[in-house]
Amino acid sequence: MMPSDNVTVPGTGPAPHIHHPDDVPRIMLTVLLALVPAAALTVLRSGLPALVTIVIAMAGCAGIEWLCLKFLRNPGSLRDGSALVTGMLLALLLPPNSPVWLILIGAGLTMVFGKHLYGGLGRNLFNPALVARLALLALFPAFSLQNSASPEMAAALLAGSAWLIFKRTIPWQIPLSFLLALALPALLLHAFAPARFPIPLYQVLGWATLLGALFMAAEPVTSPVSGTGMLIYGTGCGLLTGLFTLTGRIPTGFIPAILIMNLLVPLIDRTSFRERLAQPDTPAFMQGKPLMLLTTAIAALALSSLRLVF
Amino acid sequence: MRRFRGGVHPPDFKAATAHLEIERLPLPPRIYLPLEQRPGAAARARVRPGDTVRRGQKVAEAGSPDSAHLHSPVTGRVLEAGPVLVIENSGETETVRYRPVKNPFTALPETLLAAVIEAGVTGLSGSGRPVQTTLSPPKDRIVHTLIVNGCENEPYITADNRLLIEHPDKIVDGIRIIKRILGIHHARVGITANRREALEVFRHAADIDNEISVVALPDRYPQGAEHLLVQALTGTRLGPPASPLDAGCVVHNVATCAAVMEAVTLGKPCMERIITVSGQAIRTPKNLLAAMGTPLSFIAEYCGSAQGAVRVLLGGPMRGIAVTDLGQPLLKATPGILFLTDNESPATMASACIRCGACVRACPMGLRPCELLARTQRADASGFRKWRGSGCIECGCCAYACPARIPLVQTIQTGKRLNHDAV
Predict the structure, then answer these.
(1) What percent of chain A has pLDDT above 70?
(2) Among A65, A109, A123, B184, who pairs with A119 as Cys (CB 3.0-4.6 Å)?
(3) ipTM, 2 decimals?
């Protein structure tokens, strides 16, 4: 019984007969919109090549997905917009003046190895854009990304992410736990041994790391389904990112960190299930929008105050 | 008042009928009463084609202890006697003589229960269960509280709300009678907090009995579901397969309480009920007092007929049943008929699960519908059990929230059946 076989004909069909307005295409569009500030900033800084990278990445992903859907017969359609989101994220991870062939190879890697070989949308284990980026780093190390601290990019990414959380498109647990697991150990280490841990703080909070924490880690397919699971996952991502960035040579430690946590998601999902029959909710003042606002305010404050320290 | 974790908050859509007083729907030219009942065995006809019946006359006998008697709402001639009783309305208004119970508040519980059974009262909230199945719990079960559902969380439907406002005394008397039948003292009535008029009017009416407490509950679907109602009003947390009886509670809808009052105090059989007719496709939405067995087409015409309805629902949009044949009759358990346009209820196509977790957040029982979906698709009965599929109350919150528009309730129902077969 494939879900796509259940076409609901007007007049009949199972209950419920109404749905929440957010369907998959709308969710994807909302994520794309949230990335526009960061994308616009990249184009403003690096000019036309950056725009070209974005357009080719999105078109390439869409085109290759079309080919995959045609030949692999996975469920899904281009209409859900997920290929475009992957394309945008891939473009942001690549140097702005990347050659066209690199972008297209990247697009191919996302769609084939990151998504469709696993069975299409909803079936992939790893974040497709990160799979492609890691492969490209290994194959063509010359094209690496500058993961510098950039308050403007940080603001653009945080604004986009806060809006997504506000709209309940992505849950607050992952960005918050990721950032806290990243920031707190870095702060502690710096407090105890300032000489040993000065510069890495910036690398840890580079704008690409923020992209990873706020967007790539929060991708629904490859993250846990429950709030508790998400907190565990986000914390793991943050800690691993800190570890890889501080001890490794690559500034983009979040890439292997998130991919490793992706691998652990099925285990996290299985072990975080606790039956909660008719459980009372958290107190009223902690629910809904106030909570989202509080969460993003804390995250933004934490990051900005770190800047002040130096 | 802490609300429960999960649930959804669809738009209300009650503005069209919330302030409309209940109108009496005229009796149709023909009444159709199916003998088939669910649950319980089919009723047995007591009349033959050609017989004359009067309004209020018992025309079919319950087929088993868990099925109910059927009464004719019209005076006229029987045309067919099974599997659907068809009675022609002669237009006369001669009624059988009702036999009310005298002094109901001091009568024996057995007498009261007998009157309720004789009147064929069934659960009017959608369960359709004959009321005697809950009013005579097994001897080894202790019942201490009557829980009354006045929440009406389904969008569009305002039948219970109007009943609370226009006939609160009937509900209160029904509650007192039920308490007497069960031999208990405490009753707690849950009413959604934003229904201010209903709360005010009903609280005033309930003042005559200081063992009836009225509690304002959060406006969230499905607060009125029996397990969540029990949790909100008594604090006991339980889910299927446990039932409210395991918490010492019996749950009834306000309309059922009013029907019990009429059966006992007026001797009137259960043969009509309040329904809401709404939706953008119906020209004149109304709250109606309609006779069971009235064809849906007659009701639609009375409300100005429907234009551009892509879906006709019996009940609310969260749990209602879509129907295509308007010739079928109104049944006891239907609280409303909705004529929805494409705008209100667009056709949807299911796509792949993206593991977003919206269903997990929406589930009031803390289950994981996406996992139950995966287990059912693989026909994995033990996996379904492991993820506690039996705890599902089939409220529809998960499917409402699902961006991929996967029919989760239907899938979980299939999964439950898998388990029945496997075990």
Answers:
(1) 81
(2) A123
(3) 0.91
A210 to A16, A38, A156, A265: CA distances (angstroms): 39, 11, 10, 21
State the smallest CA–CA distance between residue B243 and chain A in angstroms. 12
| A309 close contact with B: CB closer than 8 A | no
Separation CA A98–CA A115 (nearest Å): 23
Q: How far is A113 from chain B (nearest CA, A)?
A: 18
**Any idea which residue has 């868990």 for tokens?**
B66
**Out of B318, B365, B387, closest to residue A278 by CB:** B365
Chain-centre distance of CA A144, in angstroms? Answer: 19
Q: Which residues 209-238 of A are in CB contact (within 8 Å) with B?
A: 220-227, 230
Distances in Å between the Cα of A222 and the Cα atoms of A230, A259, B61, B171 are 11, 9, 59, 52
The answer to whether A141 faces chain B, any CB pair under 8 Å, is no
Measure B90 CA to nearest chain A CA, in Å.
35
Region A250-275 average pLDDT: 88
Question: Could you give the CA distance from residue B222 to residue B396 in angstroms, rounded to a whole number?
Answer: 9
Does B230 have pLDDT greater than 90?
A: yes
- What's the pTM? 0.90
- For residues B124 and B256, the answer to whether their CB atoms sit within 8 Å is yes
CA distances from residue B370 to A121, A202, B190, B238, B405 in whole angstroms, order as listed: 15, 39, 31, 22, 12
Contact A250, A209 (CB under 8 A): no
